[in-house]
Known about the structure:
It is globular, with a radius of gyration of 15 Å. The chain has helices at 8-22, 32-39, 76-82, 94-107, 140-147; strands spanning 65-69, 86-91, 111-115, 129-137, 150-160. α2 (32-39) packs parallel to α3 (76-82). 32% of the residues lie in helices and 22% in strands. The chain has five helices and five strands. It has one domain (8-160): Rossmann fold (3-Layer(aba) Sandwich), CATH 3.40.50.150. By secondary structure, it is of the alpha/beta class. It has a five-stranded parallel sheet.
Amino acid sequence: MLNRHIDVRAYNREAWNHQVDSGNEWTVPVSPETVAAAREGRWQVLLTPAIPVPREWFPAMPGADVLCLACGGGQQGPIFAAAGANVTVLDNSPRQLAQDRLVAEREGLLIRTVEGDMADLSVFADGGCAARLARGVSSAPARRRLVGGLRESGDLHLRLHPGG
């Protein structure tokens, strides 16, 4: 039996970089029309392919500090920014983060992008955000780490991996 160490973060990064090249639905940036609607207060975000997260689950967006984890791709972050939030997107894939920067530049949005692993959120101050949005959370310890950086009244929205 071959016992080799797999760098999961590097593997995941390359896989998502490839997904951007392939046009995977989670890598296609939102349209100018979607951003315009969000600026007018008409917005929704998806964490699953077909069902929007209910708006009442989110804090009021104007001025809210929102951390989007593993949510690069130019979708959720730009919608929140257009709705008035202070947005930081953390993703492991440089190509996914480039999609967020593309929308931000095209639409004049302020979005901070950070390349990193959501297993290590030490670059962010604890208690620093009103909402965290995370895709692909696969374990209970990871979910506990995500809660640590929320304000006392903050919201956590997750898309779990199957079986997670």
